[in-house]
User: Fold these one by one.
Assistant:
Number 1:
Amino acid sequence: MTIATDTLRRMSTRDRLSQHAARLFAERGYHGTSVADLADALGIRKSSVYSHIGGKEELLAEIALAGADAFHAALDELQGDASPGERLRLAMRAHLSVVNHQLDVATVWLQEWRYLSGPARERFLAERRRYEQRIRTLLRDGVRSGELRTDLDLGHAMLAFLSLGNWAYTWLRQETNVDHAADAFWALLRDGMAPR
Amino acid sequence: MTIATDTLRRMSTRDRLSQHAARLFAERGYHGTSVADLADALGIRKSSVYSHIGGKEELLAEIALAGADAFHAALDELQGDASPGERLRLAMRAHLSVVNHQLDVATVWLQEWRYLSGPARERFLAERRRYEQRIRTLLRDGVRSGELRTDLDLGHAMLAFLSLGNWAYTWLRQETNVDHAADAFWALLRDGMAPR
DNA sequence: CCTACCGATCGGTAGG
DNA sequence: CCTACCGATCGGTAGG
């Protein structure tokens, strides 16, 4: 997400550090971004960055978990009274919306997390598994309601759903109408490419 | 692809260098892999690596273009006498087969290419566009044959097909039956998740 | 948030 | 493929 200059000025140095770190990790990769690059983005000395963080990997962990928060929060807002099929359409909208509006954080969540180690890595993987389970549950509910076929393989269906949602970080652009794209993707997954 | 030790011994140093570079770039990322890491993998000194390459980025370019070769070659082997719908099923098999059997090269092709610069980057992007066009043509042929719906959005359909194929590098494992997974994916894309 | 500094490592070259 | 070496940069610390 692009942040206006006056908004950045009002943010705390710590928050600006996270913003810039997400952007640079997404653009150049975690290993392609130095602490000096982060300091330059903030207009301070490299050593001063360590007044705000314990180490570089701490930033990576924070951003990866911010990605977890964003994707889970988007699912939380789904209408509980909509049909399961409808909720799946809205889930695709929610997912693509996070990818589009928080592309930096989403890119770290999708790609750079692999450089995490220790407990932060375990926490990340747990959040990702939980997200996958939530999508799987929505699909299962769709089968139960009769909107999806009874012989649907939930594992493959979940992988397909998330493949469409996740790979979007490679081609989504600011000007893309994400709701339109999400509806088209869900319609494709639901109805298939063959004539009905 | 895992290479047997005796096979590695029979390969030229240059070829072993490419093998190890693909593996390390895929595992640790391009910026997370040093020339010293490559030298260690070969059991030689860092400076000796430069007897074989002009620079680190040259290896990245070579591996990324090897990915292009692998994906295009897999498509080349498609049966021309099969129906377009059947060719799409085989194209998904071909794509997943490359991802599974050349996971290192595929990972560089899918992820690490973004650290390419200059002409190598342009060549990569041209190959990727050409690959996307080949998939799009297969889909168009499917519409023409009547196997796919006439109102199919070829852009979204191509993105969906490649999303399933590309994201597979994150979850495919050696023991996965890729032909089975590819057939399941293509059946899902063709018939959809809703009952027919 | 600064100056000053640390040992280790970076990609790469010279010359054999 | 080696020894020896280059200047630049790495993540990080001490002490103010």
Number 2:
Amino acid sequence: MIPSWAKDAKIGNQCINAKAETVAEKPSFRSAFKKRRCLIVATGFYEWQVQGRTKHPMWIGLKNQHPFAFAGLWEHWTPAEGQPLETCTIITTEPNALMAPIHNRMPVILAPTSYDQWLDPAFQQIDSLKALLRPYPRDELTVYPVSTLVNNPRHDVPQCLEPVSV
DNA sequence: CCAGACGTTGTT
DNA sequence: GTCTGG
DNA sequence: CCAGACGTTGTT
DNA sequence: GTCTGG
């Protein structure tokens, strides 16, 4: 995400995620956290589990395979020259018990019951909003290892989703 | 007052 | 845009 | 996150 | 090493 005040789009490189713990205070995020929240829809995400010298990609998603929504922020940015851009970022939090062995962070997944409040720019109760940014219940998530095929982003194919044995 | 930073991931 | 440091 | 680039001269 | 593109 590129903050609206950025002079250089490269500022966005350091806003690839926003930490739930600090998103309300950081100059790069607090304005969007207050007024420009969004949902980023997905059916799963990948994390790489480090084991010794190798990294195993893992797929994480809902047990029922339904789509879900990450808690996101968005910004409108106008460069000195060129077309304006709308960009976004995903908020992360500490891992739940399922994710902890894999990674030290996990993206915030919102419960459907909180979508309306999250999306309403008129709702600006910071503490209430922060309270929505919790690790998702472990019992509703599933994780399995996948092929290192997914390491190359050009491999946008169904095989990236297939379970492999470790 | 002006100048400069503003951040996360992973990795060290 | 807004805050911190000088 | 990972993969891949990172450059200049001259010629077409 | 660091940045860009996917």
Number 3:
Amino acid sequence: MTNGRGLTSQSQDFSAWYNEIVQQAELASQSPVRGCMVIRPYGYRIWELMQGALDGMFKATGHQNAYFPLFLPKSSLDREAEHVEGFAPETAVVTHAGGAQLEEPLVVRPTSEAIIWPILGDWIHSYRDLPVLLNQWANVVRWEMRTRPFLRTTEFLWQEGHTAHASETEAEEETRRMLGVYRTFMEEWMAMPVITGLKTDSERFAGALRTYACEALMKDNKGLQAGTSHNLGQNFARAFDVRYQTEEGEHVYVWSTSWGVSTRLVGGLIMTHGDDEGLILPPKLAPYEAVIIPIWRNDEQRGVVLEAASRVRADLEAAGVRVHVDVREGMNPGAKYYDWERRGVPVRLEVGPRDVEAESVMAVRRFVPQATDRKTQLPMSGAAERLRAMLVTIQDELLAAARDRRESATVRGLEDYSEFRSLMEEQGGFAYTGWCGDSGCEQKVKDDTKSTIRVIPDEEFRSEDVPVHCLCGAPSMCEVVRARAY
RNA sequence: CGGGGAGUAGCUCAGUCCGGCAGAGCACUGGCUUUGGGAGCCAGGGGCCGCGGGUUCAAAUCCCGCCUCCCCGACCA
């Protein structure tokens, strides 16, 4: 592994470090097709845990799952002008099928608005049909020029929420509600702190009125757009003629939203917590929260130790802990330690003759903050309770550490452009600055520094002393968070 | 599309300059010994040397053409 201390300044090292974790933790591998990715079982399990948590949160907010087709007629994508302009360049188009040229080309969905809205039009007639609150788990294809495992792949897995509402107010509430759901998930499950806020027009979803986003800061001090929630206004309703009849008998366009997070979150997880030894997983998203390593010197000990290990496993499973006993033969305990450390398992439980003798197990943490013991001896009876408490602590400490890291890489109140430039050039990180509101100025800063306005932060993230000047010197219209980003 | 690098065993690569039996480490298979921080020994399996053409008695190696991948840009809600 490359040296972690070099990670903030040398993006090439970080890139190599990232790719190595993806491979060595067996999260993903390359596919024969350019930019596509094979998600391996261990990596997929992490995604499944994410799916489970998110899906529960969607259900709790009244959403239902549905599934819409992979292909959309090209003419359908063309219906919303801004939408087609934004997506057409990166779509894959099927021109031949069934041994013949198709009369109308089919677009492999880059997102599903253009297939969902023609269909929802048939479902929605009356104010009584609203709101429609749908979610879809699916794959989408976006033919990006440059790809990176999990962060930007040609095909990726995601969920996309699509809702229709009777009023603008309701749609806006929904947009904000789901942004909040994402934030809760990212902080409480991924232990990845985020800044929420509004995107500028240039970064807005193609076809949306407003786009909100969750922005996280990775360990190399680059930003990651972790999730977006769009208020689509009546744009898609107009484009696909989706109207409903009000109580008063009027026919009016519905207001809609869409929101999504993807397997990119797995990449975010790696770059938020990983270290020189490999992956570090927050307990809530770890395929195994604990792995038991049995240790023995001879056959007699082997029997005793394995018996004790399976007893511990049974106790932990009964307590709802995801646990695995590593019984692989012909592998030293040390080799197993390294193996599971690379894979980010939060706690390793060593069970050897000494432990059996003492009726205890040795718990060794993967993530060890300052002034914390790496190893803790747990009594064999009651190990489950102690371990559960330890996992809760680890989850909290990971979030706290990630938040500290982000804060120490955050600069506020910067008004001097050359200072800003060298900050982006050298350290990176989040910079809170003013913005005049001009998109030309936004573009110039991007060209000069490769940094972009990540969000216009929500109130709770704003600085106490908001800058009065934009980086260009003009009066500031609002505070913005700038960073180089993935 | 521009700049740079690389294609040889599952992986990482040496060998190419200077043509002469296809190599190493890791991984894999079998056996024995091991196991509290990456095990050791022995035996074995595995190759269109990216593709096509040329030069030569002889090409992984030299020449010509093509293809692919990686990195840095351009692109990216």
Number 4:
Amino acid sequence: MVTSEQVARLAGVSRATVSRALNGSPRVSAEARKRIEEAIVSLGYEPDVVAQSLVRQRSRTIALCLFFGNDDSTVLSRFGETQHYFYLDMLRDVEREIADAHYDLLLHSSSIAQNNYIRGLQMRHVAGILAIALNPTDARIQALVEAQIPTVFIDSISQGQNSTYVSSDNLDGSRQATEHLIQLGHRRIMTLLPGTNGPVGSKRRAGYCQALEQAGLPIDERLIYPAGWNTEEAYRATMALLRERQPRDFTAIVAGSDLMAIGILRAIHECGLHIPGDISVVGFDDVDLCRYTEPPLTTIRQDRSAMAQGAVQQLIQMIEADDQLEERQLSPIITPTQLVVRASTGPAVPLA
Amino acid sequence: MVTSEQVARLAGVSRATVSRALNGSPRVSAEARKRIEEAIVSLGYEPDVVAQSLVRQRSRTIALCLFFGNDDSTVLSRFGETQHYFYLDMLRDVEREIADAHYDLLLHSSSIAQNNYIRGLQMRHVAGILAIALNPTDARIQALVEAQIPTVFIDSISQGQNSTYVSSDNLDGSRQATEHLIQLGHRRIMTLLPGTNGPVGSKRRAGYCQALEQAGLPIDERLIYPAGWNTEEAYRATMALLRERQPRDFTAIVAGSDLMAIGILRAIHECGLHIPGDISVVGFDDVDLCRYTEPPLTTIRQDRSAMAQGAVQQLIQMIEADDQLEERQLSPIITPTQLVVRASTGPAVPLA
DNA sequence: CTGAAAGCGCTTACAG
DNA sequence: CTGAAAGCGCTTACAG
């Protein structure tokens, strides 16, 4: 294991000078710099990041914190569940951004209480935190905000002195989806959404309502049907819906997400109905799978790479802005959404 | 930030004793231990893992290395691609196992050359490596093996002094899938598999052939059709197949994976054929989505949690077996596979 | 059983 | 521009 000591010896300088050269200090002569660089190459030296972290009291590591449930102790624990499928794609972009900035990504799993959770992060000297916390009442959110470690939340609207958030324009996306159906002649449009108080669901509900209002359509509580974010719950809810409502009182469904839409499609098929012949379905997210559903799914695209890029760049900016400007204004980043029309939506057919 | 110095002062002992108590050394008196524990609780002390890593020359971090392509510089870069969907589920189990053992998971992205790749891992003092390398010729595999850091590969059959692997019984799984179709009366059974030299594909091809042989059926090269692991390529291959083969010369398809099967189903639908009425399809992996395809997919289940558990436990055992026994025999772990019958397979119908 | 001391590999005021 | 020295927070022989 090559150390800076060996580099210094070979270059005929002190470790201090090697360190300065490495960290781009201007106070190093050209000759010294050259000799050091040669020594580094010939020895294959690379600085020990652990030692650097210790002395700098800060690592180049960004921790990923996912709180999908209240009890998930590991970062990925809930990632197999269909409702979180969307975030995976975004994580790819997140990792690329982080790598490009020469930071590492840590999945820090702590099965302990909240204060220990934060402490674990501090003891690892993480530089910053990227958090996706779907339940706004999760106590860890507030703990994170108070910990004063630079933090960017995705899809949670928490803000603080050292934290901000990025989110899609969920309201406008849902509005577009509903408007698309209205333009196709639909008047009785269901929406399946969780009954929780999360910001994502709330905004999507609001967008749905806004589109109806703009079109002068009434907002019927019977058209807003509760279902969890996952495929199975959406499937069950739709089955229940199709059985309860005889005769059927709707011609289209705005799904809370694409993965919910997949369950909805399946239920409609099983009841012997056609899509979009009998019922039109719109998803939300535009995950890759949308192209392979039967029929291919009309949906709302979230700009995942813009979300990831915005989140990471904002985070790194916060990390590297060592000057703690009191007046710093951290404005949230809201990325646009866009309707993608495929084959699961069509003209409304009159109800029986 | 509470340090061991403060704990020592409060407990009236030296830092050395605090360290011993913390690390479970027997050479600490009961009274000292008690006072130290009280001090730790009252101060909320937690050791600095960075300092520990430096002095121990080893962190409690396990790096995740995914080499899905030859050029992926980030760990997750290829995870959005359908062909790697399966590994995500396994990663969940992997993370849980790692967390339970009180290790951290690092996604180490290095966009640099191979020797720097290894060096980056060494400089971070990672304790061990979990690697999924789908291309057996990837130079990083050999570099990893030679680096002598404890490593467990998943689905690559690399072994070395400090490395071993875990894999499903791919051959037997594919054999079961094919046998299932034979029992349903199918005689002309296609298989769609990548033409690469990866161990997973090779084993699955061998299992397919073995089932045919055991049934006394000929192995027709025209029945082994090349297609990449992803949904899109499987879709395109099937479309081409259905156009080329007029009249059609097969009644069933063994897909290389579930995500390939999804593309195959879509192509069959688009050609106006029925599943399993016209063509039966079997997948491989048993991802959650199988239940939601149209029709629900018959497939081969891989025991992901057994794979994850085997991999992590083996890895940690290697890490903590500080005694480098020369005669240590690291035997690979092969987990069983199992047929899951759903609705995409049915009796063979005679070909025109 | 316990403490003083050295050391892990680096960085950074402090002098010069 | 450069080096000697101190220090980041811990662990571990070495004495006692």
